[in-house]
Design goal:
The protein is α+β, with helices and mostly antiparallel strands. The chain has a single domain, classed as 2-Layer Sandwich (STM4215-like). The protein is built from four helices and 13 strands. Strands 3-6-9-12-11-10 form a six-stranded mixed β-sheet. A hairpin with an 8-residue loop joins strand 10 and strand 11. The radius of gyration is 26 Å and the shape is elongated.
Amino acid sequence: MFNYYYNQNLRKLVLGFGSLFSNLYVTHANPDGGSDLTIRVPIAYASQEKFIRRLLEPSSINDGIRVENQLPRLSYIMTSLLPDSTRRRNRNTPLRSPNNGSCLNANIITEEIPVNIGFSLYIYTRHIDDTLQIVEQIMPFFNPEHVINIGLNGAQTDLKIPIVMTSNNISEKYDGDLSSRRVNISSFNFIAKSYIFGPVQNVTQISSIAIAGLTAGINLDF
């Protein structure tokens, strides 16, 4: 029953969620009147506590050179994984997808469970205006949900997954000691309505039936 398989359902969703926020930018005005500076905001998979520690502790290239992480930055993490009984489907109807365009073969899945997957997204900035720029690039696209298409396995190559924003906490200021860097932290919480699928099986489909052989010896006169 429990043989090894790995569809990477959760891994693909984690990567897909992070990619939504991989093209956010902030602009800093040039005080000298020149061209404004536009910065792409990097994103990484890390918890808030771990990321704050990385921001406040400069890293070492060697004994004489120490480098600080630059702001703004983003991080995100998967926070929960719960079954969703309201989206259960008939188990007697397997998920089916044609294999390489052939009508003779198909990939099918007979086991699945709908799940609600929680994500938290964190924004780290030094300037409050950077926070506002990032927030404005995120919130309009979750009204009330944003749908992404992901190929989770051989039978679900274009699955639509709604992502709902459930809460946010804008501009939470991190207060350290006087020698610490100032970091403004904001957070967003999301729920992705996805599935975890069982193993994919490749089966041969029936394309035609020999009717003549089946009707031999049957009287059709009524």
